[in-house]
């Protein structure tokens, strides 16, 4: 268990693997899979989110998870909070009527979709991803949920890479953010 001199953020950071030069030269890839492999570490990770969102002012009606690693944390968090979970999927993965949002990537674009009945007008939604880099996927997920009349109360992720500008871009769009580990300058 983390002690006061070794806080949750440091504990989690120590279990995130950095893979140099992947997927391209010069990239320091932050691999969260070690957080998920160790049951104690995974519990600390989930509990950090659960304790935050148990607060009545921050408690969502629904948790939405971003494809694909946002499904892992988001679905467990929804279960622990006793609220529903909805997946924000890559285009072509959902079988029912969908709404879609296209966003720009460094080289091209991508599209995410959401079932039209995933949320109701006025639902307070917590949008969960694994990592904030450029912020494009989370911003597209926010827009999708808002198209259906929901309010995205906060975006949450395990890791923030602030030097890539995504967290600032999301805050500039009006989205409150909560992240557990910040890799600024690392």
From TrEMBL:
Keyword tags: Cytoplasm, Glycosyltransferase, Purine salvage, Transferase
GO MF annotation list: adenine binding; adenine phosphoribosyltransferase activity; AMP binding
InterPro entries: Ade_phspho_trans, PRTase-like, PRTase_dom, UPRTase/APRTase
A Pfam family recorded for this sequence: Pribosyltran
Annotated EC: 2.4.2.7
The UniProt record lists the keyword Cytoplasm: yes
Catalytically driven reaction(s): AMP + diphosphate = 5-phospho-alpha-D-ribose 1-diphosphate + adenine
Domain of life: Bacteria
Manganese found in the keyword field: no
CDD domains cross-referenced by the UniProt entry: PRTases_typeI (cd06223)
Main location (coarse class): cytoplasm
Cellular location(s): Cytoplasm
GO cellular component assignments: cytoplasm
This protein's pathway: Purine metabolism; AMP biosynthesis via salvage pathway; AMP from adenine: step 1/1
Domain Phosphoribosyltransferase: from-to ranges: 35-163
Gene Ontology process terms (BP): adenine salvage; AMP salvage; purine ribonucleoside salvage
PANTHER family for this protein: ADENINE PHOSPHORIBOSYLTRANSFERASE
Assembly and interaction partners: Homodimer.
Function: Catalyzes a salvage reaction resulting in the formation of AMP, that is energically less costly than de novo synthesis.
Family, per entry: Belongs to the purine/pyrimidine phosphoribosyltransferase family.
Name this protein carries in UniProt: Adenine phosphoribosyltransferase
Protein's organism: Brachymonas denitrificans DSM 15123
Lineage: Bacteria, Pseudomonadati, Pseudomonadota, Betaproteobacteria, Burkholderiales
């Amino acid at each position: 268990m983390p002690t006061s001199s070794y806080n949750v953020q440091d504990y989690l950071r120590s279990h995130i693997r950095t893979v140099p030069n992947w997927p391209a030269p010069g990239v320091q890839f932050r691999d969260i899979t070690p957080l998920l492999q160790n049951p104690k570490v995974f519990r600390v990770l989930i509990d950090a989110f659960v304790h935050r969102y148990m607060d009545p002012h921050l408690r969502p009606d629904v948790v939405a998870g971003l494809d694909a690693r946002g499904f892992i944390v988001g679905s467990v968090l929804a279960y622990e909070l006793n609220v529903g979970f909805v997946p924000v999927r890559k285009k072509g993965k959902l079988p029912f009527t969908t709404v879609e949002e296209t966003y720009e990537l460094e080289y091209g674009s991508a599209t995410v979709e959401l079932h039209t009945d995933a949320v109701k007008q006025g639902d307070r939604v917590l949008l969960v991803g694994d990592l904030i880099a450029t912020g494009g996927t989370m911003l597209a997920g926010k827009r999708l949920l808002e198209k259906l009349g929901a309010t995205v109360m906060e975006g949450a992720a395990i890791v923030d890479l602030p030097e890539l500008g995504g967290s600032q871009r999301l805050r500039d769009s009006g989205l409150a953010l909560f992240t557990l580990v910040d890799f600024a300058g690392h």
